[in-house]
Write a structure and sequence with these properties.
The protein is α+β, with helices and mostly antiparallel strands. The chain is built from 1 helix and 6 strands; from the N terminus they run βββαβββ. It has one domain. Strands 1-2 form a two-stranded antiparallel sheet. Strands 3-4 form a two-stranded antiparallel sheet. Strands 5-6 form a two-stranded antiparallel ribbon. The N and C termini lie far apart (40 Å).
């Protein structure tokens, strides 16, 4: 029997100070059905397409050296 797991969207980043690899969970946007339809229209997503809207954290903290950094999306 094969067990299953739920994958969650996440970000991986390398600390520019100590070079260790870090992971941050993305934040899943909980919205009403009406808000979801508005977001889909705004971002050019078809009504029938399924998924979740996520956001990235504005700042992250290295779990090893504890330095804090602003984030940017590439």
């Amino acid at each position: 029997m094969t067990l299953s797991v739920e994958l969650r969207p996440a970000y991986v980043w390398d600390c520019p100070h100590c070079w260790d690899e870090n992971f941050e969970n993305s934040m899943i946007y909980e919205a009403s059905d009406e808000e979801i339809l508005e977001l889909k229209e705004e971002h050019g997503i078809e009504v029938w397409e399924d998924g979740v809207f996520t956001t990235m954290p504005e700042v992250v903290k290295c779990k090893f050296c504890e330095m804090v950094f602003k984030t940017e999306q590439i």
